[in-house]
Fold this protein.
Amino acid sequence: MTAESQIVRLGRLSKKFFKTLRKKGGRYALARVFRKIYFKLEETALPTEGAPEVAHPVSHYHHWIREHFPRAYDLQQMRETVAVLNKPLISVIMPVYNTPENYLRGAIQSVINQAYPYWELCIADDASTDYRIKPILEEYAKLDSRIRVVYRQENGHISAASNSALEMANGQFVALLDHDDALTADALYQVALMLNMHPEADMIYSDEDKVDEADNLRDPFFKPDWCPDSFLSRMYVCHLGVYRRSLLNEIGGFRVGYEGSQDYDLVLRLTEKTDKIFHIPKILYHWRIHPQSTASDLENKSYATDSAKKAISEALSRRGEPGEVTPTEGGHWIVRYQIREYGRVSVIIPTRDLGNILNTCLTSIFEKTTYPNYEVLVIDNGSTEPETLDVFSKWQAKEPDRFRCLPLDIPFNYSKLNNYGATEAQGEYLLLLNNDTEVVEPDWMTAMVEQAQRPSIGAVGAMLLYPDRTIQHAGVIVGLGGVAGHSHKNFPYGVPGYYYQLHTVNNYSAVTAACLMCRREVFAEVGGFEETMQIAFNDVDFCLKIAEKGYRNIWLPHVVLYHYESKSRGQEDTPEKQARFHQEIMTMINKWKPWIDRDPCYSPNLTLDREDYSIQL
């Protein structure tokens, strides 16, 4: 056996060891080192099946399916378990119009095949002109009394047809099914199970995949839990959606004039009435890919994007948060909110020497920033280099009203430096910024204030790039690498990322303090940074304290800065540093274990070993 194969074997064994350690609360034993070695070898050994911005390789997904999809035995157990559950009636509503026969039969049969029997299928035929449709629907209505059909006299399109189906519904909950898609056999069982665990639920959604014309499953979409700001940027909840019928009736069902995004508009209005929204992290829906489907190509239904923009714009108006809905790639959106008042922003930059780097940062701020009301506070942590002192003097002379240098000569403690800066700041917004950053977009500060002013928002983060224009930071995933890691790290700038995550506004549990804005009142409410956490993870801890208070943290793709952090920076190469780093790791694990085990802004079906959104195999 070669040395390499021995390491690979050891790495594989350490996977089990790592899982055992994880259950016992430990994550950073020797197993983690072996796993790093193993995955480095694995990355070079496995063939690359696509660029990092594309969907999951089919082979990886099929491997995942074999491990996670229910088998016949599992489905039989579900059928037997139903007896001990509360049994809400679930009305599946399905508008139909000139559906290809094989797809229509497949959709209906997927409901009949459900392990959970307490359903009804409410079909509204929207005056199909294909003579084959009515006999098929009549056939199934005779076959199963739970299937009911209404035939509309004139074509009204999907919103009107969906409302016709909804009018027939008797269930406490309503599930939406497109006429050419399919439910997994356990879909309604999993919904009923969730309702038994959370009877207060008003909305439930699941993960989904796509099925091509050869009936091959592909392109799974593993989703986060409910993230309202992500939803404003893209309709990510999509399929399978299940809603409390009384709420659907209260909001008036589907609105005519929003065809193509009628479900997006529906959920925007419904979630203004409730926050009892639950996510089932399982694939329960197969979205059909064929030439006429939205799943195949959004351009097939360009009116859908027009409807989406209208739905989002109206939602902003209803919520009293006016703004402009601007398009981004993939048929998605970025909301640019109107700023109510241009309150002062205090930019806090801890530094020690490295005058040239700091000067680059300050030059980019003062020369590019278009936001009209800000100050810059440099917290000098004992600089001695003449070049750095000259930089302080230069900017004090050039910007006497907007620049201050405040000395704090203590052993380096990032948390203390920022807390001190916050006490000296005059602004209602605090913008924490590393000295090795450089502003790219002139409206960067404006865009951050747009979000930070909103009462629901805690920390606001930015897109940070390495000098080679690869991504250094696009949001923080808690649990990644053991405690926390950066989303899409090392991806090329400009690629869509995981389902356009890099082109859309998204909620994350944390963002890096290399560029982070929050309202002063939020900073004070959580007590600022934990000063016992001197170097590592203090920003993650800060963001989780904010999230724990009920605020949402958010990352913005259109706020772009360079971050001249070396990709090899931060090695813990002395016993003292290693001891301190280990202590900070254990502090995070002990304090935030539930978040580390399950980041609500990241799917449990995605890996915690890499930063590329690959499947957890």
